[in-house]
Amino acid sequence: MTDIIGGSAVGAGTYRATEVDVRTILGVNSSTSVILFISTANSLVNKVALCAGDELSNAELALIETWLAAHFFSILSPSVTSKSIAGGSVSYQRGQLGNRLESTAYGQQALILDTSGCLAEITGEKMELTWLGID
């Protein structure tokens, strides 16, 4: 099993997620580079860590970062959901534009893993209701 807490050092940054773990979630081969997506996820998870304080462990932050990296990858390279051999058709998983993290199963998983709610708050996933009625 991969050490998901350790992450891999690239350039000046150290990431919580590893390329192996992100590729495993995505089901892509080892020649597929996912480091840009890990870097993007890391930037967001660093904000989550500041917001959450001690509420999330390093292991939980690593899992969130891993699933977020898969989310960002899948936006540009949607996964195949079905194939037809005779007809030659292929269907891809495509999220709804404007649905943010909810647009992919990977983003939804990241939101679930963040028990602090900070990821939803930072990305605008959480809706706030204000009572405008008359008492």
Write the layout of secondary structure elements.
Elements: E1 9-10, E2 13-14, H1 19-26, H2 35-52, H3 58-76, E3 80-83, E4 90-92, H4 105-113, H5 118-123
Antiparallel strand pairs: 1-2, 3-4
Task: Describe what you observe in this structure.
- It is a single chain.
- The protein starts with 8 loop residues before the first strand and ends in a 12-residue tail after the last helix.
- The protein has five helices and four strands; from the N terminus they run E-E-H-H-H-E-E-H-H.
- It has one domain (9-123).
- It is flat, with a radius of gyration of 17 Å.
- Strand 3 (80-83) and strand 4 (90-92) form a beta hairpin.
- The strands form two sheets. Strands 1-2 form a two-stranded antiparallel sheet.
- Helices cover 44% and strands 8% of the residues.
- By secondary structure, it is mainly α.
- Helix 1 (19-26) crosses helix 3 (58-76), helix 2 (35-52) crosses helix 3 (58-76) and helix 3 packs antiparallel against helix 4 (105-113).
List keywords for this structure.
135 residues, mainly alpha, two-stranded antiparallel sheet, 5 helices, 44% helix, 8% strand, disordered N terminus
Please trace the helix and strand order, writing H or E for each element.
EEHHHEEHH
For the largest sheet, list the strands in their spatial order: 1-2
With helices defined by DSSP (H or I, 4 residues minimum), what is the helix count?
Answer: 5
Count of individual domains: 1
Separation of the first and last Cα atoms: 58 Å
Determine the fraction of residues in helical runs and give it as a percent range: 40-55%
Could you name the ranges where pLDDT drops below 50 across 5 or more consecutive residues? 1-6, 8-12
Mean pLDDT: 80
Q: Percent of residues in beta strands? A: 5-15%
**Biggest sheet layout:** 2 strands, antiparallel
Q: Report the structural category.
A: mainly alpha
Number of strands: 4
Shape: flat
Oligomer status: single chain
